[in-house]
Amino acid sequence: MTTDRRAATAAQLPLPLEREGGAAPVLPEIGIAPEWKDQPRLWGHALHPMCSYLASFPAALAHGFIGRYSRRGDVILDPFSGRGTTPLQACAEGRIGVGNDLNPFAHLLTAAKVEPASRAETSTRVAALRLGWAASAPDWIALAEAATAPDGGGTLVPAAGSGAGGRPTETLPAEVAVAFHPRTLGELLYVRASLRLNDRTDRFVAAALTGILHGKSASYLSPLMPNTFSMAPRYVREFAARTEFSAPERDVFVGLERKLARLQREPLPTTAGIALLGDARDVADRARTALRERGLPDRARLVVTSPPYLRVVKYGYYNWLRTWLLGYDSRAIDATLDDAHHREPYLAFLADVLADLRSILADDAVVVLVIGDVETDRGRPIRGAGGLGLAERVWEAAAEPTGYRLAGVARDEVAANRKMTKLWGAEAGRATKTDRILVLGATESGRRRALSAAATPIDWDWPPRGLRAI
Ligand SMILES: C[S@@+](CC[C@H](N)C(=O)[O-])C[C@H]1O[C@@H](n2cnc3c(N)ncnc32)[C@H](O)[C@@H]1O
After folding, report:
1. For residue 4, what pLDDT band results from cuts at 50, 70 and 90?
2. Are 100 and 280 spatial neighbours (Cβ–Cβ below 8 Å)?
3. Distance in angstroms (rounded) separating the CA atoms of residues 386 and 3
4. Are residues 381 and 414 in the same domain?
């Protein structure tokens, strides 16, 4: 990792890549030190920690590049936006943040952050939900008690978004029933049926609710699972039976109001962003259309993104309780996402994404790709280190052939990726070793801009001094 923050100029930087022993090429380093690592864990806008999301990067990392490579009013795009870190941080800094993800859960989180609801809007909505609950609580509690009774398997409940008076049409999974106190479950079933995810305020409330669904402290609605991910359904059922787990009563409305107060404790970004749902391979057209419809500039000046890790995360499976709450099918999510590729199809996939992106990039656009080295494949060490040197291979097989110009690579040592280690168990070791950050120019002028602005000093006060007057 370099700590030399002087940027190489375009003239100084040797573009031809060296190779060591015929392996992956050795990429030139760009003078960007990972100062984001020195910032507090929750650095950045208060909306960021809305809900935990595996393999998300810190807001401070996004800021390190937004500060160097964009100005207010610029469009900043993330084609794999996950929980919306880049687009939210962009909007919070007066840029137009555009996020895209193929996972509907990620899309919901991104949309909730770039088109957030105000405190007045959510207070009114939660008050209305409380009123509706007061009028119908006995029915919902009776339903939840039936579902959580020892012979309650197969209880039918109303679908998500079907309305507070919705008819019971879908079976409540046993692993959902076991996670909550009957009263908490009754409240959840009612709120889940009431919220309409295409409404901005309801979406924000639903996203906040996913963030408090499970976790170990008293602020979460079920202590059965950690906050970071859902344990396997079978494990949950067996663990609950073995330990005679009995969920404590937690009030959904109180928990929700506290969560909303934490999220809305600082002013909302004054710039609205755009959240798109779809495949990164065709994001350019969809982003351009959405930007034009809003009368906004239709070229992105900066992309900050981390593509899916190679066979590490199953976003549906590890979020099954949250996807149940939202009415999404976790298996269908995993069937569509591009997380399961082996290396060569993964590189071909990224080449398609980068080729498509070109048409929406400004001439001097900078593209920042955060790529994790992966030592394990679904928990087992990868033979022949197929996941190592991935960034180098991405440059060689996906970025260079699609016409990008390499400014350099910044290294971000990942000391111990605890979330991933927990997922696979201690014996699986670390899922990623060193994140490499490829900094590319869309053209030669983008590469020169990437190099000359690498030395820009970054203001790490939050909110940055220049933004405080907004
Ligand atoms: C490493 S995560 C991004 C995390 C993000 N940087 C954040 O901070 O939350 C990669 C994302 O790629 C998404 N993804 C996987 N395949 C995709 C595809 N074909 N098109 C768009 N998104 C996809 C996953 O749903 C996941 O959210």
Report:
1. very low
2. yes
3. 28
4. yes
Q: What is the tally of structural domains in the chain?
A: 2
Compute the distance from residue 309 Cα to the ligand 1 centre, in Å: 8
| Residue range(s) defining the domain that contains residue 130 | 119-263
Atom in ligand 1 nearest the alpha carbon of residue 79: 21
What tens digit of pLDDT does each residue of 196-230 get?
999 999 999 999 999 999 999 999 999 999 998 88
Query: The CATH number of the domain where 364 resides is what?
Result: 3.40.50.150
**Cα 96 off chain centre by:** 18
Q: Give yes or no for a cis peptide into 463 (omega within 30° of 0).
A: yes
Q: Computed over its alpha carbons, how large is the radius of gyration of the chain?
A: 23
For residue 98, the cross-strand partners are 77, 274
Q: Which of 65, 101, 286, 322 to mutate to test the pocket of ligand 1 (most atoms within 8 A of CB)?
A: 101
Assess whether 124 and 240 both reside in one domain.
Answer: yes
pLDDT tens column, 75-124: 999 999 999 999 999 999 999 999 999 999 999 999 999 999 999 999 99
Looking at ligand 1, which residue's alpha carbon is closest to its atom 1? 308
The pLDDT of residue 13 is above 50 = no
Does the structure show a pLDDT above 90 at 342?
no
How does residue 137 score in pLDDT terms, banded at 50, 70 and 90? very high
Are residues 70 and 137 part of one domain? no
361-396 as b/e, with b when 16 or more CB fall inside 10 Å? bbebbbbbbbbbbbbbbeeeebeeebbbbbbbbbbb
pTM: predicted TM-score of the whole model, two decimal places: 0.91
Cα of 351 from ligand 1 centre, angstroms? 16
Identify whether 210 is part of a domain.
yes
Beta bridge partners of 191: none
Whole-number Å distance, alpha carbon 53 to ligand 1 midpoint, is 10
User: In sequence order, what are the residues at sequence separation of 6 or more whose Cβ sits closer than 8 angstroms to the Cβ of residue 179?
Assistant: 214, 222, 224, 225, 236, 240, 247, 321
Lowest mean pLDDT among 2-11, 86-95, 368-377: 2-11
